[in-house]
Amino acid sequence: MSKLDLILINPGNHREVYGELGSSLSALEPPIWAASLAAFIRERGYTVKILDAEVEGLGPSAIADTVADANPLLASVVVLGSNPSAASTPKMTAAGKIVQELKKRNIETKSVLCGLHPSAVPERTLKEEAADFVCQGEGFETHVALLETLKNKSKMKFGDVPGLWYREGSQLVSTPLASLVELDELPMAAWDLLPMHKYRAHNWHCFVHLDQRQPYAVIFTSLGCPYNCSYCNISALYNGKPGIRYKSPQKVVEEIDYLVTNYGVKNIKILDELFALREDRVIAISDLIIEAGYDLNIWAYARVDTITTKMLEKMKQAGINWLAYGIESGSKKVRTGVTKRFEQDVVRKAITMTQSAGINIMGNFIFGLPDDDLHTMQETLEFAKDLNCEYINFYTAMAYPGSQLYEDSIKQGVPLPESWQGYGQYSEDTLPLPTKYLSAAEVLSFRDSAFKEYLTDPKYTDLIARKFGINVAKHVNEMLKHDIMRKIHVQ
Description:
This protein is α/β, with parallel strands linked by helices. It is built from 18 helices and 15 strands. Helices cover about 40% and strands about 15% of the residues. Strands 2-1-3-4-5-6-7 form a seven-stranded mixed sheet, with helices on both faces. Strands 8-11-12-13-14-15 form a six-stranded parallel sheet. The protein has a two-stranded antiparallel ribbon with strand order 9-10. Strand 3 (about 75-80), helix 5 and strand 4 form a beta-alpha-beta unit. The radius of gyration is 22 Å and the shape is globular.
């Protein structure tokens, strides 16, 4: 058996990020980015393994044992989850402990940190962490060139590897970014390297069949986003610029077919930052899924000002049963302040159209955006209750590294979390941004009470019982017994 060239590690701190919610309610999602990197690198002749420490429940010491036993040329810790902003920076605490443990073992294997957070703050990451390298950008070409350099030291230098940060003595050195890859040139994700039987969908995704959350997969049909919301940092992964690239509909459905045929997958998340953008493309993908006759339960992200009736009809026929909308705030002033410019009636129209098409809605809202005060946050809560989406995510505003909010916060000296875990939405260490009018503790307290108020509102509980049955209504009520532990409180 040939020596292992690369081990890709999905760092695990599920409990720290999600608290009690992580035990059974949240999803366990396959690390699609690690699987995509693995497929690309393997296609170029390198031997690759994926260690999903999150789903396997492995800590830094056990991970280091596995790496030491495998003794690969390179260990790459992939700091990126299926909810990019919320599942990258909070993973850095675990990622940092992994590379620190690898360094302590004094093994020959080199380590690299890659993903959204390292791409957003590469210099800081290399300064603060024990990794030998930091990858800035998507990482496809960077990993291949780095492996080539490690294998053939006389032929290439680290300075020839695109998108790489490394040390030369006491100096930190960086190279020009790699070009973005064409998505149809990417091979299918290396699903065979993952323990596919262990992944599960979110509880709300399977409200129709709560006992059928497995098997589960995550795919993408596009990467990037053409918009530039100030709270989002996704562009940091794609050379820092807004933009979107597409897979062909045929490639998308080939992957779905593989997942259905080989793993019996029914529950699927479409990872795209914005799937429902171009009507022609959404319809083309939906038509191919309909033609194949799959029985799927899919959810995807949409935008209230790009959705159309025709899109909705086709998506429903294809098995897209949930759409997640970024509504963010019930205040036009607050939305405009973060470049989310659409009118309230546009939101209402999109919600009505979606529910009329038989598609359930995940409404995403953010408390604590810069212009928020208690009045505007109450407006947001009342707007959410009035819309009565089938489920909601109530987030607090975070200055994720790579976002405009982060840059603004640094310039203004706004207090940010002391640990990367503090960027987790459900963590004990959660520290959201203060607003112009409210403290971080006030924002967090409002968010947590608003979440309970929404889910216990009679209008909502009646909707859930009517649409999904009394058992799901009881499930939601039971879910509220999982208190989220917080270190900061309103004085």
